[in-house]
Input
Amino acid sequence: MHEDLATPYHQQDTNYYCGAACAQMVLDSVGTGLLDQDDLYADNHSHSTTEGGWATAPDGLQWTLNNLQSSKYFVLDALATEDAISRMIVWTIHHYQVAPVAMVFGSAHWIVVRGYTATAAPTGSIDTRYSIDGFDVNNPWPPTPMPGPPPPHADPDACGSGGDRGIADQHLTYSTWTSDYMTGVEFGHWNGKFVAVCDPDPPPDRLPSDRRHVRRPRERARLLDANAAAKRADDALDEQGLRERAGWKESLRAAQPGDGILVQRLDRLDSFYWMVPMMKQRRASAAVSIDARTGEYRESVRVPKPVAGMVGMVDDSEVLKRIENERFELPLWQGRVRARREAICIHPTFVWRPCLESLSPFYPFRMVTVGDHRLYIRIDGPVFTSLTLGVHGI
Output
């Protein structure tokens, strides 16, 4: 059973406008039209009143989705388990035909969940007789290109076309959803809750089901090599049925696995994944993420037209060219560091963790040590001297 709602994709206009971008996408999908993200952010931020410290808090996002349209009634669900919120999301897509907005990476980010794959259609929001296999999401990150003001949005526009314009189609398995995305809020009023803004009837008290056990593949003693990762990525596209889906079918036709990149998670011990581009005439039309320890398919993205710049900073020479002899401002008034060749040490893999500078696993970094300092060069080129953690709803 697969359902995928037509939900226009748009990037967030600043690095903390993810709630505004998600509201823009969902409201557009229910017939409100394409509203301005500045206005949407002003509305949700001013109504994020339960507790301070948020760019877009759950109550503020719920307010905006209800305040600016009349065809739907959106409810803030803060449930006790990941399983319960995931089933509420599936039920909302199936029964109410509207895409929920989910809080992911702890409390760092908002994304739109527009589709699901399951063993059967749900019969209710607490139906536990089916298994969820995966989700289709609109992740509004990265922000629209700077410098200069964000471009005006339109249906369609360049959003989702790849590179610094974001990626429109993203599919992830349920195990990736549970381990990496829907991990629960870790502080404050919603501490320990799993949060999404959905479109059910105003609900009675629910008794959420226990988290169902997810069977994990056996881990390998050695990491998957590049050739094995490429084959696994190619096979996974068939296993997930993506080659036969509208949109994906055209992007994947005649595409072959390219040279993958190995990415190390900075926030998890001994955690790695491969990002394998699917290539057409030396341009990438999609990318597939494979767990480097288990060979498990994690998630994938596609772009409507193949692009040349989806995977950059692969060669150390490219990294050196980007930073050598440049000066970079360090945080907390520590001064500036100059990236002299003699002091540079380049980490052998890409790295990633959820942070303000990257809220998509498909935008990892090359990590460079310069003396006692680190530089992070994102795959699309920007350089950062630190990664900003502890952000909420950006």
Summary: The chain is about 20% helix and 25% strand. Residues 315 and 366 are 10 Å apart (CA to CA).
